[in-house]
Protein kinase domain-containing protein
Amino acid sequence: MEERHVLFDKYEMGRLLGMGTFAKVYYGKNLATGESIAIKVINKNQVKKEGMMEQIKREISVLRLVPHPNIVELKEVLATKSKIFFVMEYVRGGELFAKVAKGKLKEDVARKYFQQLTSAFDFCHSRGVCHRDLKPENLLLDENGDLKISDFRLSALLEHLRIDGLLHTQLLLLLLLLKFHIERRVFLEKIITSHL
């Protein structure tokens, strides 16, 4: 009989989902609700040794600041003397990177992902948060095919907004221009097809 690994009498840890330099991510289950979760296990001693404890604290602060349907939810943070555990939403659809690698996305699907991405980014920026590590591997898909941004490890809290109260970044400008271009193209296509 296989021994169960239970954390703090609350969560059962299962198979390894992935690993990075300082952390491993496991599939888990909330014992009270049966909900599937992801558990990110961080080696506290290694993080301290590398002087990255502030980065971990910042990631926790950022994730608590940005509750959004298109951002992976941090449910709870637990710790022992040697480990830090991030209990997070389990996103079962995998990376957007893997989906794109299989072939071209249909335009309506790409538009949906782009709208979800810009919605999440706009929300982050409204809260003074900049992700700083956006790449296809950090864009996950849930079971409904909705996009979720993950890995806020390198994020920054932008304490100082400009005088007008807005966050001005080149990335935000680029995203807004792309959004405008896509919406304009869709609008023009509708006009053209309605006159055929």
Q: What stands out?
A: The chain has two domains: 5-89, 96-194. The domain at 96-194 is CATH 1.10.510.10 (Transferase(Phosphotransferase); domain 1).
